[in-house]
């Protein structure tokens, strides 16, 4: 009898996860199409500003780690100068403190590589608008863990497989809880909280909270 009950519980969990994934995927597609259609004029405006701000492409595509360790190109509006890599290498060679800061989070608070329009796009998170194309392609979700670069995988240690069991998100608990103001350990813990407690209601609350953060961008750690 106990074995039958266990099978029944397992079956309920499987069905619950299936329904959640199906509803979430449908919602991702509808939400992304809505954002891209409604925001199309702004999309064109930001693309023009990026193009006029400096020489180089409008978009920047960076390799990220997706669900089940798959790799994909995460699309953003370009916010850095084309020679950003050379600027960074020279900077880190000359300044040990900045090198330590960069190795900690792979970011710099006062980053000389960022263009003038890039600072605005990053501060408002509008540079991430093109990621809705990643959502439509099934590489990301609207809500999920942070999409990390391959160099960060080992920092997740034993938790990487669990975090990587779902699609990374444009927004998530990390993005509405302080972003780069949080310690790396705290970021990982928030990703784990989401993966272990994920449900439609939680996704909805995160999206609503994201709109609030975007409308009232105090120091949310976006840089």
Structural class: mainly alpha
Largest sheet: 2 strands, antiparallel
Strand content: 5-15%
Instruction: List the secondary-structure elements in sequence, H or E.
Output: HHEEHHHHEHHEHH
Radius of gyration equals: 19 Å
Mean of the pLDDT scores?
Answer: 85
The neighbouring-strand order within the major sheet is 1-2
* Oligomer class: single chain
Stretches where pLDDT is under 50 for at least 5 consecutive residues are none
Number of separate helices:
10
Percent helix: 55-70%
Distance between the termini: 57 Å
User: What is the overall shape?
Assistant: globular
Count the E strands: 4
Protein name: Sugar transferases involved in lipopolysaccharide synthesis
Transmembrane segments: 26-50
Pfam families: Bac_transf (PF02397)
EC number: 2.7.8.6
Short structural summary:
Helices cover 56% and strands 9% of the residues. The chain is mainly α and 223 residues long. It has a domain at 85-113.
